[in-house]
Amino acid sequence: MSIARGAIRRPVAVWLAILFCLFGGLWGLANVGRLEDPPLPAPPRQVPRQPDQGGVDSGRV
Fold first, then answer.
1. Burial of 14 (0-12, 13-18, 19+ CB in 10 A)
2. What is the DSSP string of 1-61?
3. Which end of the chain is more exposed for a tag (fewer CB within 10 A), N or C?
4. Could you say which residues of the chain have pLDDT below 70?
């Protein structure tokens, strides 16, 4: 017997399987661990400096 023919003969079983998958997926989503990977601390960042462009503070007159 093919799957389509069996589904046509037993529609209640098909709907029960759909509801079982739907509620089982929602239950699994609600119970899955949220913090599987702990957050890593951010490394200290260095701010790149611009080379001196010969402005007022450069010491040149």
1. middle
2. --HHHHHHH-HHHHHHHHHHHHHHHHHHHHHS-S-SSPPPPPPPP-PPPPPP-S-GGGS--
3. C
4. 35-38, 53-61
